[in-house]
């Protein structure tokens, strides 16, 4: 089975006042339909940048892609016609669940108006652009027939994300909803266009644990039921453990390890992964942190970017990035000195 | 793990008795149309040297409780005692003297530091207000504390935006510790930190507690952090403590259904997936419109008629106290 999305050796950076910041350094990942891939890393490791690069919503004036490809259903999104990508992929086949659902809503409109606004443009039932050819797109009418079908789809999906009394909810303003409700609504909005891939950027960071458990369960169930691929970026290893099929770890803009979820937590191979897992607080209070700080990306360390903080680092680590080392089916690591367990 | 061996004869360092903080909800013409019971009848004692954890979901009133103890909010009813003195009705001048030994570490240290001040100036400020030290004396004390929290002297000349989140936390802590407080209220001390940084910050809290003989009250929604740090825990739900007791008892044998669901919601790496059959439905009700009787009954699987009629009081059960008609 070919992957739905395959990112190959993607490198990109941002032009800043201090110089060029090389944020992503030859990152690869792939994801299949109906699977949940967790992209784990600490803040500043480039996971959100990667998510935005796949969506194609990086700031145009400062971001520069320096290499690599983003294959989605067989086309390279980076070289494809932007007009076609915008109409058929972005917001249609690939949708996005943001980290903070509050700032993503417009406070001046009811949530119902905002949900229907999406469907006016991105409904799976719209094969043609809405409206008549001679009208400017913004003022073109929304055909009543399709509007009714779209509204039914909205109500059905709000039921699916377990929002009670959906028709009343749609008449409310964003501030009248709780954080959990807003995030459920965001998930529903991401699923409305009938996407193949949902990118969820830290969807539960702003939520309480009990709500987090409910929302994570919802994402997992909807992904399986609707055969949608989910790319879940998170810094919370517990959340990744809960719902992911596979986990990929990033450090300072490099992908360092990827493995099926059980293998990942039982046999981490990269020294960074191992230390990250050891940093989780435990009942006996023995959690160890990682000394040092994430490097600045203006002048990142050469080779493996983790080497200044790694006690296993030796000569080659400083010079060249380690190649992919396949330890087992589906489990690879980019390290010269990985932790190998006896089988 | 924090040792909980404390002589029983010691009086509590900080005592809160039946504290209530209600915020008015006002309609047109400033008419009072309701009230939000942020804290509604909370009592607890803080013993010298212990680490007391206060957990609950957002909106349960845990930060309001901490801020009321600090005198930021005025309590509607109830008493707050600190070191044998009642502090909830003090004059502002007398309050200032208390504040020196009772300090509050804010949730977001980045936002509580003035962005236009260098770190050094922010660290001098509390000493200018609370002590008579001259500039050289203040400088000496600041350098001592900086070393204790693990920051280099060169950071004194930096601005808050130039340092990382973990370092801002350290600065926030240094700022408090220069006054040699007795009690520090830590409000969500690890929110917004990455796990690798969180572990080092927690280790720092532990070592500072030993060095400066501190007593902590730790407010957090992160149960894993509370478990590693605290000797005693209280669980809050909608302005009330629903269960309190020694950390191990609470985590090993939770008796209140809310505590059980809270613990069940934490992902346990290597264990069963909790999201598959997480049973707690819905969200906490609006604090402006609290259900009658037991506050948790609208989401509780055990709720019966009695729960709607009568609000359960906190009663002792084994080593812990629980406010539930049908505890486990």
Keywords:
heterodimer, A: 343 residues, alpha/beta, eight-stranded mixed sheet, four-stranded antiparallel sheet, 11 helices, B: 328 residues, globular
Can you give a write-up of this model?
The complex is a heterodimer of chains A (343) and B (328). With 343 residues, chain A is α/β, with parallel strands linked by helices. Helix content of chain A is 31%, strand content 22%. In chain A, strands 6-7-8-3-9-10-12-11 form an 8-stranded mixed beta sheet, sandwiched between helices. A 4-stranded antiparallel beta sheet of chain A has the order 2-1-4-5, covered by helices on one side. In chain A, strand 7 (197-201), helix 7 (209-226) and strand 8 (229-234) form a beta-alpha-beta unit. The longest helix of chain A has 18 residues, at 209-226. The mean pLDDT of chain A is 87. With 328 residues, chain B is an alpha/beta fold. Chain B has 11 helices and 12 strands. Chain B has helices at 62-70, 92-101, 109-112, 119-130, 135-148, 165-177, 195-212, 223-229, 247-252, 257-264, 305-309, and strands at 14-26, 32-46, 51-55, 77-82, 85-86, 102-105, 183-187, 215-220, 232-237, 240-246, 315-317, 320-322. In chain B, the strands form 2 sheets. Chain B has an 8-stranded mixed beta sheet, sandwiched between helices. In chain B, a hairpin with a 2-residue loop joins strand 11 and strand 12 (320-322). The longest helix of chain B has 18 residues, at 195-212. Chain B starts with 13 loop residues before the first strand and ends in a 6-residue tail after the last strand. Chain A binds chain B through residues 42-43, 178-181, 208-214, 216-217, 220, 235-239, 241-243, 265-266, 275-277, 279-285, 287-291, 293, and chain B through 1, 57-58, 164-166, 194-203, 206, 221, 223-225, 227-229, 251, 261-262, 264-270, 273-276, 278, 280-281, 283.
> What's the average pLDDT of chain A?
87
Structural class of chain B: alpha/beta
Largest interface (C-beta under 8 Å) = A-B, 42 and 42 residues
Shape of chain B: globular
User: What is the helix fraction of residues of chain B, given as a range?
Assistant: 25-40%
Helix content of chain A: 25-40%
Strand content of chain B: 15-25%
- How many individual helices of chain B? 11
Total beta strands of chain A: 12
Mean pLDDT of chain B: 88
H/E topology pattern of chain A: EEEHEEHEHHHHEHEHEEHHHEE
Radius of gyration of chain A, CA atoms, in whole angstroms: 21 Å
Major beta sheet, strand line-up of chain B = 6-7-8-3-9-10-12-11
Give the termini distance of chain B in whole angstroms. 26 Å
Query: What does the overall shape of chain A look like?
Result: globular
Number of strands of chain B: 12
The residue ranges of chain B in which pLDDT falls below 50 over 5 or more consecutive positions are 1-7
Oligomeric state of shown chains? heterodimer
Helix count of chain A equals 11
């Amino acid at each position: 089975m070919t992957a739905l999305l395959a990112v190959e050796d993607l490198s990109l950076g941002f032009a800043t006042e201090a110089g060029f910041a090389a944020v992503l350094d030859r990152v690869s990942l792939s994801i299949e339909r109906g699977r949940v891939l967790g992209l784990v890393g600490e803040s500043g490791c480039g996971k959100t940048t990667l998510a935005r690069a796949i969506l194609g919503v990086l700031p145009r004036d400062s971001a520069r892609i320096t290499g690599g490809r983003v294959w989605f259903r067989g086309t390279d999104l980076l070289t494809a016609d932007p007009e076609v990508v915008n109409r058929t992929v972005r917001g249609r086949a690939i949708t996005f669940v943001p980290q903070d659902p509050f700032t993503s809503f417009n406070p001046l409109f009811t949530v119902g108006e905002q949900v229907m606004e999406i469907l006016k443009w991105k409904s799976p039932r719209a094969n043609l652009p809405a409206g008549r050819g001679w009208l400017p797109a913004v003022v073109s009418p929304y055909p009543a027939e399709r509007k009714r079908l779209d509204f039914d789809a909205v109500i059905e999906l709000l039921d699916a994300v377990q929002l009670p009394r959906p028709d009343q909810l749609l008449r409310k303003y964003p501030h009248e909803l709780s954080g959990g409700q807003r995030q459920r609504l965001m998930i529903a909005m991401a699923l409305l266009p009938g996407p193949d891939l949902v990118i969820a950027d830290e969807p539960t960071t702003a939520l309480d644990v009990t709500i987090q458990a409910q929302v994570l369960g919802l994402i997992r169930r909807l992904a399986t039921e609707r055969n949608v691929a989910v790319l879940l970026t998170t810094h919370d290893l517990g959340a990744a453990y809960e719902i992911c099929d596979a986990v990929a770890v990033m450090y300072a803009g490099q992908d360092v390890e990827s493995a099926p979820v059980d293998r990942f937590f039982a046999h981490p191979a990269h020294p960074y992964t191992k230390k990250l897992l050891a940093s989780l607080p435990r009942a006996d209070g023995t959690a160890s942190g990682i000394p040092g700080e994430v490097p600045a990306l203006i002048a990142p360390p050469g080779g493996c970017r983790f080497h200044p903080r790694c006690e296993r680092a030796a000569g080659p680590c400083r010079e060249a990035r380690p190649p992919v080392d396949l330890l087992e089916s589906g489990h690879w690591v980019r390290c010269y000195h990985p932790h190998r367990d006896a089988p | 793990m924090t040792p909980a061996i404390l002589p029983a004869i010691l009086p509590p360092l900080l005592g809160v008795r039946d504290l209530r903080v209600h915020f008015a909800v006002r309609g047109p013409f400033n008419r009072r149309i309701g009230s939000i019971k942020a804290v509604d009848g909370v009592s607890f004692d803080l013993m010298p040297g212990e680490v007391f954890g206060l957990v609950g979901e957002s909106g349960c009133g845990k930060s309001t409780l901490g801020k009321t103890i600090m005198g930021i909010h005025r309590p509607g009813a109830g008493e707050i005692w600190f070191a044998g003195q009642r502090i909830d009705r003090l004059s502002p001048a007398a309050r200032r003297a208390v504040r020196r030994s009772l300090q509050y570490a804010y949730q977001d240290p980045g936002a509580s530091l003035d962005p236009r001040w260098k770190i050094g100036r922010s660290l001098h400020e509390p000493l200018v207000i609370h002590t008579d030290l001259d500039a050289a004396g203040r400088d000496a004390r600041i350098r001592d504390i900086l070393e204790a929290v693990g920051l280099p002297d060169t950071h004194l000349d930096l601005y808050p935006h130039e340092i990382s989140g973990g370092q801002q936390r350290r600065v926030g802590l240094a700022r408090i510790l220069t006054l040699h407080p007795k009690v520090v209220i830590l409000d969500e001390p690890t929110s917004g930190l990455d796990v690798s940084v969180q572990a080092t910050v927690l280790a720092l809290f532990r070592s500072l507690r030993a060095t400066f003989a501190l007593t902590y009250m730790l407010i957090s929604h992160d149960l894993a952090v509370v478990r590693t740090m605290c000797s005693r825990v209280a669980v809050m739900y909608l302005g009330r403590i629903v269960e309190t007791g020694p950390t191990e008892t609470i985590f090993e044998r939770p008796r209140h259904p809310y505590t059980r669901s809270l613990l069940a919601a934490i992902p346990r790496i290597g264990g069963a997936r909790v999201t598959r059959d997480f049973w707690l439905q819905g969200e906490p009700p609006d604090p402006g419109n609290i259900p009658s009787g037991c506050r948790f009954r609208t989401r509780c699987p055990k709720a019966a008629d009695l729960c709607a009629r009568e609000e359960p009081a906190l009663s002792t059960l084994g080593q812990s106290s629980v406010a539930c008609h049908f505890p486990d």
